[in-house]
Amino acid sequence: MCHMSACAVLSYISIVFLNIFPLQRIKSRSQFRRIATLSIVFCGSVVGGNISLRYLPVSFNQAVGATTPFFTAVFAYLMTFKRESWISYAALVPVVAGVVIASGGEPSFHLYGFIMCFSATAARAFKSVLQCILLSSEGEKLNSMNLLLYMSPIAVLVLLPATLIMEPDVLDVTISLEMKHKFMWLLLPINSVAAYLANLSNFLVTKHTSALTLQVIRQ
């Protein structure tokens, strides 16, 4: 929630006050629905990935996450009818096969954790394709900073009640950390700004390449 709040605030300052990019208006209900869907899926992918880490070791979590390019290629074809070269699809086969082999031999395998990790991976791929559509579709495309400006507040609205329900003591924990670690008040904003830069870079790479290229780079 801190990350998305920083994305909303910094995007607004960059567009409205610094005029780095011109402000773009949402042009249609379908465009707004896509932005809202992107925000919800984004939250779901992050939360699902975090939940899976409670049940699976990081190495196995990353192994499953390596299949993201495969799901991205599938969603890209289903949603945009865009086909990659056969070499690109062939290169994804060993990755998926490797995850299947690793899953069968993983001593710390946990079914619920695997389902959450698998769902988060699929959601991450779907998010990449959807953001690619919003950044490049004719007539309704947004630049990276404007897309971040519109999706971040929606994500905050989704995460705020989830935070209050799932982490009712979050304020007390934060205050106690502030008292124990004198630089906590500085580290949290730095972390949030870094998340803003990471998300903005994510959008820029997607806009200038493709959703599949982004996920291959991330892996």
UniProtKB/TrEMBL annotation:
<protein>
    <submittedName>
        <fullName>UDP-URONIC ACID TRANSPORTER 1</fullName>
    </submittedName>
</protein>
